Amino acid sequence: MTVTPPLPGDFAVVRMDGAIGRLIRIGQFLNGDGFADYEHAFVYLGDDRLLEAQPGGARLEPLSGYDGVPARWSTGRIPLTDGQRAAITAAAHSYLGTPYSFADYLALAAARLHLPAGPSLRRFVATTRHMICSQLVDQCYQDAGVHLFTDHRWPGYVTPADLARLLR
Length: 168
Hints:
Elements: E1 11-14, H1 18-30, E2 40-46, E3 49-52, E4 59-62, E5 71-73, H2 82-94, H3 103-112, H4 118-128, H5 133-143, H6 160-166
Antiparallel strand pairs: 1-2, 1-5, 2-3, 3-4
């Protein structure tokens, strides 16, 4: 089987093991995603570098750090022009250091459960400019004019499982 290498601007979803992965799996289940196999997402920048949102803030990491980790890639599944790829990677670079937001998970739950606090949580999360991993991926694509979801949802309402479903 031939594996197509990722191109700059592609994204991937991966499984996370350990306590954090279990918490995200539970959170995604509670948000209506079921028990998805993917709990983390990142944008590939090229030259063995990726940008990912982490609790310490969005940071550059080597792609090789995910060697041996099963990943579902957007490569060949989300058609992009060279200009869109350049815009996605430029957007990703602009988010370097963006703080992580656990409040996003509360906003997701409030929106999916139609709680009255949903709109105010969304406004709060939007004003903090913090992001979770899947939000970061979707925001980079939106900044490049690429809408991954036909419902035009707010990037803060995107989970890794949502991204994984795009790649089936």
